[in-house]
UniProtKB/TrEMBL annotation:
Residues 347-374 form a coiled coil. Residues 7-63 form the CBS domain. One of its GO terms (biological process) is regulation of DNA-templated transcription. CDD domains: AAA, CBS_pair_SF, PAS. GO terms for molecular function: ATP binding; sequence-specific DNA binding. NCBIfam families: sensory_box (TIGR00229). The lineage of its organism: Bacteria, Bacillati, Bacillota, Clostridia, Eubacteriales. Keywords: ATP-binding, CBS domain, Coiled coil, DNA-binding, Nucleotide-binding, Transcription, Transcription regulation. Residues 124-175, 241-292 form the PAS domain. Gene3D superfamilies: 1.10.8.60, CBS-domain (3.10.580.10), Homeodomain-like (1.10.10.60), P-loop containing nucleotide triphosphate hydrolases (3.40.50.300), PAS domain (3.30.450.20). This is PAS domain S-box-containing protein.
C-alpha cells in the first residue's frame, strides 16, 4: 500500500513569512498541535508546533516575529510513492508527505495508518468467517475448558442443534461421543476417524489449535460421507459391482476415479477423461501418477486414510478433490476419488485470495501485538530487602494463576512495574498487555474506551465502530491503574464483566465472550472508600483475590544503594554524562530521607544531581536538594522559565502530599482540572 493512499491530502500550512500571531491564530482555528511550514514554492522547510509557540512566548518573543526564525527546521518526511511499511521502521509518529519534486502534498500519522490497517483486517476477518459458514464441511471448535467456541451451519445440520443452543456449552453435553477433549489433552491430531451422528455418517479430522507452541483448544472438521457409505454398501450387495459402478460413473458430471490398493487405475469416468484429454482404454491399468498430476490416490489406497475436500492443482488450476479408501473386512483394497472441476477459474482465484488474506492477517496481528506489549520483568524490579523480596515472591506465585490481582501502594512505588512483571511471567505473556489509567480518562469517555462502540451508536462515533480495551486484551492482561478513581456507574459495568466474562460494546445487540485477566492498582484505601460509599463493595471483593502491598521506599532503605547504582547507569546513558559514583556522605543523606515520592522521587533527585555535575563523575552532597540535606548549596542563576517550572513542580508535590496522593483532591486544591494535573505530572516526571 502506498503512502498516498492513506495520507491526509492538502494539509493546512504556514508560510515562512507568516508572523507568530498568524501562526497562533491558525493553530487555534484548526485545533491542531502542529503545522508544516512551506516556502514560496510550496516546499516544506520546517514544523511549527504549540510547544514551539509556548516556548517562544515564555522567552518573550515579539508576536510579529516571522515563523522562519522560530520554527523547528528538523522534520521527518516520506515520499507519497513510498510503501507504508517504511513508516513502522522509524521512531517518529508524524510525517510530511512530499512528491518527487519535494512539494508538500499531505500529512501522515502512524495512528491514521493503523486505523486503515485495522479496517482492512476487519474486512478480511468478516470474509473469512463468511467462507467458513458457507463450507460444506461441518466445523466445531472448543477452548481449553471444552466449551464450544465455533459451530458453523453445516455443523447445525449434522448435529441437529442451532449455534445459539451450543456456543459456550461443554461439547460433551452436545456430542457425548466426541474425542476433542482428548485431543486438547494429548496435543495429537486424529485424522480420518469415522463417526455416527444422528442419521449421518461422517469422517472426522481432529486437530489441536495452537498459538506458537501453546495449545488453546481443538477443532473438528466433519465430512458427511453418508451418501458414499450407502453407495459402497449397496454395491457390496450386488454381484455385478463393476457394471453398476460403471453406470454411476458415466452419469457423473464430476471426475470420478477408482484405483486398486497399489494405485493402478481400474475405473475412470468419461467426464474425467474428457477433462484430462486422455482415452479411457489407454489409461485403465496405468498407475495413477502417470495420468494425473499431484494425485494422492495411491497414498489413500495404501494407508486407508481418507482425504476430504483437499486442494489439488491440475493443469495449472486448483480443484477440490475428495479421496475415500475402499475398505473390505477392515482392510483397504483401493480408493475412490472425486474431483470437482467446474468453476475452476473462480476456485483458483478464491484460493489465491484466501492465501493472500492469511498472510495479511498474520501481519496485522503482529502490528497489534507490538502496540500492546509489556516491557518489564521481575528482573526489572531493583532491590534485595526482605520486604521487597517477600512481595516479589508473592507476585511470582500470582503470575502462575489467572486470578484477579489488586496492587496497593503509594505513588512512585512501582505498581505498574509489578503488573508488567506478573504478565510477562504468566502463561499469557504471548498475548496483549493493555494499560488503562482510570483517572486520566474523562468519565464520559471511559465506557467507550473500556468496552468500545458500534458504528452509529452515538453522535461522533467513528465509521466501523471502535474496539474496546477489554477486547484488545483478549487472551492477555488488562491493567486498570488508579482503579479508585473509577466512577461508581462504571464500577457496576466492570463488575458485570468480571462476573460474566463478556463485554458489550455501546450500541451492540449482544455481548462478546472474552478471556482477559485483570490486574488493578491504586494508592487509595479502598476499604475506607467502601465504607464511605465511594467504591462498590462487591467490586472490591471481586478484585481483591490476590493482593500485593508494595512497601514504600522509606520502609526499605537498604534498597536505596542498589537503586542508586542502577539509576545512575540508566540516567547517565539518558543524559549523555558519565557519572558512576556517589560519595558516602551523599548516600547517607539519601538513606535517611523519608521519600514521600518513593522510587520515582529518588530517580528525579538523581537526575537533578547528574544535571548539576559539570566535570566530576561523583555525586556529592552539594548536588542534592536542600530538602534532603538541610543545606542551601550555591547554585547558578536560572532563567525565569526554569524558576517558574520548579515552583510549579514543587507546588504539585506539596499538594499531593497534603492530599495523601489523592490526585482528584490535589487538582481541586490547585484549582486546575484533573487532566491538566496529569499532564503536568507527566511533564515533571512525578
Amino acid at each position: 500500500m502506498k503512502i498516498k493512499e492513506v495520507m491526509s491530502p492538502n494539509p493546512v500550512t504556514l508560510s515562512e513569512e507568516d508572523t507568530l500571531q498568524q501562526a497562533a491564530d491558525t493553530l487555534g482555528k484548526y485545533k491542531i498541535d502542529s503545522l508544516p511550514v512551506v516556502n514560496k514554492r510550496g516546499k516544506p522547510v520546517g514544523i511549527f508546533s504549540k510547544h514551539t509557540f509556548l516556548k517562544v512566548i515564555a522567552e518573550g518573543k515579539n508576536i510579529n516575529t516571522k515563523v522562519e526564525e522560530i520554527m523547528e527546521k528538523e522534520y521527518s518526511s516520506v515520499n507519497q510513492e513510498d510503501n507504508t511499511s517504511i513508516v513502522f521502521d522509524r521512531r517518529e509518529d508524524k510525517f510530511l508527505v512530499v512528491d518527487d519534486e519535494n512539494n508538500l502534498v499531505g500529512i501522515l500519522t502512524k495512528t491514521d495508518l493503523l486505523k486503515v490497517y485495522y479496517e482492512r483486517l476487519k474486512y478480511i476477518t468478516t470474509n473469512l468467517n463468511a467462507m467458513l459458514e458457507s463450507a460444506n464441511n461441518a466445523i466445531i471448535a472448543i477452548d481449553l475448558e471444552y466449551k464450544i467456541t465455533y459451530f458453523n451451519k453445516s455443523a447445525e445440520k449434522i448435529v441437529g442443534k442451532s449455534k445459539g443452543e451450543v456456543l459456550g456449552k461443554d461439547i460433551r453435553e452436545i456430542l457425548p461421543q466426541t474425542r476433542l477433549p482428548a485431543v486438547v489433552q494429548s496435543g495429537e491430531g486424529e485424522i480420518g476417524k469415522t463417526l455416527k451422528i444422528n442419521d449421518y455418517t461422517v469422517i472426522v479430522n481432529r486437530n489441536p489449535i495452537k498459538v506458537g507452541d501453546k495449545i488453546i483448544g481443538a477443532v473438528s472438521v466433519f465430512q458427511d460421507i453418508t451418501d458414499y457409505e450407502n453407495v459402497i454398501m449397496e454395491l457390496d450387495k450386488q454381484r455385478n459391482i463393476t457394471d453398476i459402478l460403471n453406470t454411476v460413473m458415466e452419469l457423473a458430471y464430476d471426475g470420478i476415479l477408482v484405483v486398486d490398493k497399489k494405485g493402478y487405475i481400474t475405473m475412470i469416468s468419461d467426464a474425467y477423461c474428457k477433462f484430462l484429454g486422455v482415452i479411457k482404454d489407454e489409461v485403465i491399468g496405468k498407475h495413477v501418477t502417470e495420468v494425473i498430476e499431484n494425485t494422492r490416490m495411491h497414498i489413500v489406497a495404501e494407508t486407508g486414510v481418507p482425504e476430504v475436500a483437499d486442494l489439488q492443482k491440475i493443469k495449472g488450476n486448483y480443484m477440490i478433490a475428495t479421496r475415500i479408501p475402499i475398505i473390505k473386512d477392515g482392510e483397504s483394497v483401493g480408493a475412490v476419488g472425486k474431483v470437482i472441476f467446474r468453476n475452476v477459474k473462480e476456485l483458483d482465484t478464491l484460493y489465491k485470495k484466501v492465501s493472500k488474506m492469511e498472510k495479511q492477517l498474520e501481519h496485522y496481528k503482529g502490528q497489534l501485538k507490538m502496540l500492546n506489549t509489556s516491557k518489564y520483568s521481575f528482573n526489572s524490579i531493583i532491590g534485595k530487602s526482605n520486604a521487597l523480596e517477600e512481595v516479589k515472591m508473592f507476585a511470582k506465585k500470582a503470575s502462575l494463576t489467572d486470578s484477579n490481582v489488586l496492587i496497593i501502594g503509594e505513588s512512585g512505588t512501582g505498581k505498574e512495574l509489578f503488573a508488567h512483571a506478573i504478565h510477562n511471567a504468566s502463561s499469557r505473556s504471548d498475548f496483549p498487555f493493555v494499560k488503562v489509567n482510570c483517572a486520566a480518562i474523562p468519565n464520559e469517555l471511559l465506557e467507550s474506551e473500556l468496552f468500545g462502540y458500534e458504528e452509529g451508536s452515538f453522535t461522533g462515533a467513528k465509521k466501523g465502530g471502535k474496539i474496546g480495551k477489554f477486547e484488545l486484551a483478549d487472551g492477555g492482561t488488562i491493567f486498570l491503574d488508579e482503579i479508585g478513581d473509577m466512577p461508581l456507574q462504571m464500577q457496576a459495568k466492570l463488575l458485570r464483566v468480571l462476573q460474566e466474562r463478556e463485554v458489550e460494546r455501546i450500541g451492540a445487540i449482544g455481548a462478546k465472550k472474552i478471556d482477559t485477566r485483570i490486574i488493578a492498582a491504586t494508592n487509595q484505601n479502598l476499604e475506607l472508600m467502601v465504607k464511605e460509599g465511594k467504591f462498590r463493595g462487591d467490586l472490591y471483593y471481586r478484585l481483591n483475590v490476590l493482593t500485593l502491598n508494595i512497601p514504600p521506599l522509606r520502609e526499605r532503605p537498604e534498597d536505596i544503594e542498589d537503586l542508586v547504582v542502577h539509576m545512575m547507569d540508566k540516567l547517565s546513558n539518558k543524559l549523555g554524562k558519565y557519572v558512576n559514583k556517589i560519595s558516602h556522605e551523599a548516600m547517607e543523606y539519601l538513606k535517611k530521607y523519608h521519600w514521600p515520592g518513593n522510587v520515582r522521587e529518588l530517580e528525579n533527585v538523581l537526575e537533578r544531581a547528574i544535571n548539576l555535575i559539570e566535570r566530576d563523575t561523583t555525586i556529592q552532597v552539594i548536588h542534592l536538594p536542600e530538602k534532603i540535606t538541610g543545606q542551601t548549596p550555591l547554585r547558578k542563576i536560572k532563567s525565569l522559565t526554569e524558576i517558574i517550572e520548579e515552583a510549579e513542580r514543587q507546588g504539585i508535590i506539596d499538594a499531593l502530599r497534603i492530599c495523601n496522593n489523592n490526585r482528584s483532591e490535589a487538582a481541586r486544591l490547585l484549582k486546575i482540572s484533573r487532566s491538566s494535573l496529569y499532564e503536568k505530572m507527566g511533564k515533571y516526571n512525578l
